[in-house]
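Field reference: sequence -> structure
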Amino acid sequence: SSGINAEYGGGDGGDVVFRGASKWKDFSHVKGELCGQNGKPGMGSDLKGGKGGDLVVGVPVGSIIGCQVTQKPLVELASEGQEFRAVKGGKGGKGNSAIALSLPPGPERGKCKEREPGEEGEVRDIYLEMKIIADIGLVGLPNAGKSSILNAISYARPKVAAYPFTTMRPHVGVVHYPGHYQLTMADIPGLVEGSSLGRGLGHSFLKHIERCQSLLYVVDMACEDHPAIETISILHKELEAFNPDLVDRIVGIIANKIDLLPGPEAVIDLARAFPKLSIAPVSAMHSRNISAVRTLVEPYKTLNVPDDAASGNSFVS
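Structure field:
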C-alpha cells in the first residue's frame, strides 16, 4: 500500500440541528432557508479537511417540527436542550491523493491533480409549529378589540380594522416586565356562536385557544348586539362544548371600550355576574388603563435571561 489515506479530501458539510430552549417564545428569529457550514478543504500531508460546523437553531420548548410535503409531524422538542437533526451535510469530496490510488502504479499516479467535488447535503422542506403558542390567549367575539389590546400592551403589530375576522391567524406579542421577566400573549381570531360546531372557522380558531396556557375573555362593553354578560356566556358555552378543560384556564376578563360607556354601571354589573374573575376595564384604542391588564397577567410571567446570540442560530464544530 502507498500509505495514503483513501479518505483524503474535503471535510463533510455541517448538519442543521434544532434545539429546544425555553428562552425562545416564537420563531421570528428563524430564517426561511437554513444550512450548515461547508466542509473544510483537504490539507497537505494527505490530511482530510475538517467537518463543517453544524447550524444549531434554538426554538421554543414544545415546538413541533414536521414534513412540509406529507404535513405530518416528525418530532416534538418537549424538553430543554432536546435536539433534532433535521438534515445532514453532504459528504466531502476526494482529494487528488485519494483519486490517485485508483490509478495503476506508475508515473501517472504521482502526477494526478484531479479532485472530486463534495456531495450536496440533504434538502428537506419542514414546518415549525408551536404546541404552546402563548402564556396568555385573548378570547372574544369578532371586533372585541383583542388586536388593539395586544398592540397596546406588547410589541406586536396585528392588523386592526372594524370588520369581523380581521385576525385570521394568531398574533403573538411579548409583554415585558422589569428584571428580564416577560410573558407571551396571543390575539386569537374571534369566536362566534356555533364555533364549537365549526361555524366561522370555529374549529380552527378553537384549536389555537387550546395551545395557550391561560386565557382572558375580552368583551366589547359598548356592543349593543351582544351585551357583556351575554358575551361571556356565549364564549363560555363555546369553550366548554369544544373542550371543557379550557374553561378552567380562564383567569380574568378585559372589559374593553369603556370610553364609550356613559358610566361605570356596566362594569360593576359584569363584576357582580362573575365574582370569581378579575376584571380589567380598559380602552385599548386610547391606551387607557392598559396597566390593569399588565397587573392582571403578571403572575404568569417568566424569567428571560438575555443572550448575546440574539439570532438563535450558532455554528458548532
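Note: Confidence is low (pLDDT under 50) at residues 1-6, 158-168.
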